[in-house]
Amino acid sequence: MNLGIRHFQEITKMNFGKNKDDELDQSKNFPPHCYTTPSNVSHPLPYLLKTGLENKFILLHISFHLKSVIPKAESKSFFPERNIFCQSRYCQKLQATSTTRDKISTSSVATFLDEPVNVPTIEASDSTFSDGSDLHEGKYFNTKKDLKRKLSDIAMKGNFEFRTRKSNRSLWVIECIDPNCSWRLRASKIVPESTKFVIQKYVGVHSCSLLNRNANHRQATYVVIREQVAPQYVGVEKGPGPKGVQTFARTELGAQISYYKAWRGRKHAHTLIRGSPEQSFHVLPSYFHMLEKLNPGTVTRIEVDGESRFKYLFLAFGVAIRGFRYMRKVVGIDGTFLKGQYRGVLLVATAQDGNGQCYPLAWGIVDSENEDAWSWFLTQLKEIIGDTDELALISDRAPSIKKAISTVFEKAHHGACAWHVAQNIKNKFKCADIMGSYWSAVNAYRCEDFTGYMIEISNRYPRVAEYLENEVGFEKWSRCHYPGLRYNITTTNMVESLNSMLVNARDFPYVALLDVIQEKMSKWWNDRRIVATAITTPLTPSRESELRPRFAQSNGRHTSQLNPITYHVKGGELEGVVDIFNKTCTCKEFDIDKLPCVHAVAAAHHAQVSVYNLVSPYYTKEYYLLAYGETIYPVGSQSQWDVPNEVVTRIVLPREVKEKKRGRPKTSRFPSVGEFRKRKNRCGKCGAYGHYKNKCNSQTGSTEGNPPTNVPG
């Protein structure tokens, strides 16, 4: 018996043979020509199928069981295209009528024949549906990756899944995950040397049941989510969170994804847009080189350890360094923790311009707020701003900062942030009711007034008064006892404002974080330059608004001249003796703020001297415009950088980090001493925050089990 009849009989036994007698009876019913095949036929079974069979039902089962009957090696020679199984499933789908079976017998045989046979095209009907795509045979894609991305989009929007039958560098064959579905695609390279893929065969009609429609499909991988959601993070600092990514996938892609997959897709989208943390360390020397090249006078430093691992960095733009000469010499310093993979602490040094706005001077990234890190940062800062008696440094009372300032700056005066001192008082002594007297003492211009407020504090809380005098020191937090000149700056709010500005960028890689800083500063310089150009008064807007009410108050004051430069001003709660040459007044407000008090305004009016001549030049329009007269330029795309080879080859490795703890990484800081965070109320009816259910205006009733619609940040 030849090969063709042997396989034929095995198939027949499998499907019809109930016992040995049945098998013999069935073999007698075969047409006579099935037992012999011509000698010139290389594949007997296709020949048997071609010559025709009386029973179409036998043909269907032949095609269904070929895979189990024909060995793998033989099946390749029988059916080079390997499409027998798609035809067999199609046969099973349409075997209901004899007319359909007539069509199937021809289409099934067509797969096995060497000569071309017209195979009917599968079109959408009531029992089938199209995938709705624009794919067709002969369509080209630049890479296999592009083709996969296109098919993943189609699958997600169509809520179906596909699986890969075969995949290598030059071939990709996929089919619907339902084995009874007709949808499939075959694509391959145009030529082996090319990366372009072309669709060779494509059946875009599904014949599977709706029960197989699944929104949680395998094509919604984090890689696909990353590429789809990445544009949402271009040009923004925060972008959608994991829940936002879930919403995006559901509404735009038609896919239901888990929170973890959304979080992972968001994380990789960040990497795609902003680079990886490891890459950030590698390009840091080149990035600093371009900043120095495009912004003359910029100072950058990178400190590494003996193994070339990153330790510290320092950045000060040349524009800010040159503009500091037009600022009051009061610098606030502070640090805030970073939330990226390699953590660290961002150190900031900022001044305040004549309009009361932050003027960032220098930035640094260190491992933690310790004495070595602060000493290194302040040493770099000292090189750009100097060390004089006129300089005042304001910070919190952290021991590492205090010791570093005393070591690095020998002439400058150190002041404590009055807000941090207040928080320490409330935490240690539980006396929030004394804060009114404390702040009055902080802002007192005259020592006589300060002493009165301290007596009030001492009478009620002697331990608090002792703490402020001996442990903290009056000269650190009191305006009137400060040995230097700190003007009206008593806290580090200007530094805290910068930290709040970067709250969404603190988990970025270092270079991406510095890019955000550069972008913010460039915008500030441009916006404030425009404001300065449009000013029509001699002073900045904030100082002008502060001085105008004093003109009205000075009209009721009686002024008498004591000598050519000294005037006595009476009226109001306090008298004052003004020296218009030395710009002083016995009320001390003129002396400390360097802005004319009510007495100085009255004296200037009596002496027929312009009150603007008594104002510190730091508050004038000219200084304000000079401070922001230059431009901070970005470094541009990395492909446009022109960096020397010795800079490119400099090795900066990531710092070693502690072993990752289990669970979700912590991204919120511990509250400072005395700092309280207000807990937001959640409604038990609608799930929203900010109100209780008895004041809820929602008409939808309870949403228990559903996520709240406006969960904060």
Structure in words:
This protein has 27 helices and 18 strands. It is elongated, with a radius of gyration of 40 Å. The longest helix has 25 residues, at 510-534. With 713 residues, it is an alpha+beta fold. The strands form four sheets. The protein has a seven-stranded mixed beta sheet with strand order 8-9-12-11-10-13-14, sandwiched between helices. A five-stranded antiparallel beta sheet has the order 2-6-5-4-3.
How much strand?
Answer: 5-15%
Largest sheet features? 7 strands, mixed
Please count the beta strands (DSSP E, at least 2 residues each).
Answer: 18
Choose one word for the global shape. elongated
The Cα radius of gyration reads: 40 Å
Q: What would you call the structural class?
A: alpha+beta
* Mean pLDDT score: 78
Distance between the termini: 78 Å
Highlighted features:
713 residues; alpha+beta; 7-stranded mixed sheet; 27 helices; 18 strands; elongated; disordered N terminus
Put the structure in a nutshell.
By secondary structure, this protein is α+β, with helices and mostly antiparallel strands. It contains 27 helices and 18 strands.
List the helices and strands and how they pair.
Elements: H1 3-16, H2 20-28, H3 44-51, H4 56-69, H5 72-78, H6 84-93, H7 98-112, E1 129-130, E2 140-141, H8 144-158, E3 162-167, E4 171-176, E5 184-189, E6 197-203, E7 205-206, H9 222-229, H10 242-253, H11 259-274, H12 277-294, E8 299-304, E9 310-316, H13 318-323, E10 330-337, E11 345-352, E12 358-366, H14 371-385, E13 392-395, H15 399-408, E14 413-416, H16 418-429, H17 435-442, H18 447-460, H19 462-472, H20 474-477, H21 493-501, H22 510-534, H23 541-554, E15 558-563, E16 566-570, E17 576-579, E18 584-585, H24 589-593, H25 598-606, H26 621-627, H27 645-648
Parallel strand pairs: 10-13, 13-14
Antiparallel strand pairs: 1-7, 2-6, 3-4, 4-5, 5-6, 8-9, 9-12, 10-11, 11-12, 15-16, 16-17, 17-18
